[in-house]
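Before drawing any conclusions, I looked closely at one protein, both as residues and as discrete backbone shape codes, quoted below without any editing:
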Amino acid sequence: MVETSTVELTPGTATLMHGVTVRAGRYALVAVSDTGHGIPADQLPRIFDRFYKGHGSRGSGLGLTIARNLVVAHGGEIHAESVQGKGTTITFVLPQLRQPQS
């Protein structure tokens, strides 16, 4: 979901990057970044709100809300950082499941 929004809203020369970091027995951290237009600082606190659509968005305003709800439902956290003219990074952290002991 995040990747789709990122690709749609970045200029033709933008780069999309992602990475995953796993800390054994602790958590998994996933980051998706682009080098697009960025999100204005006054809009950043609302991007996870249901039906919120930034300027120029053609989406429904549900993608980041769904992403947030899935992450939170699994005990994680999701955050966004952005600099206008430089791009945006969405990062989420999920706790790792503990294997049942037999």
In short: Residues 2-95 form a domain with the Heat Shock Protein 90 fold (CATH 3.30.565.10). Residues 63-73 form the longest helix (11 residues). The chain has two helices and four strands.
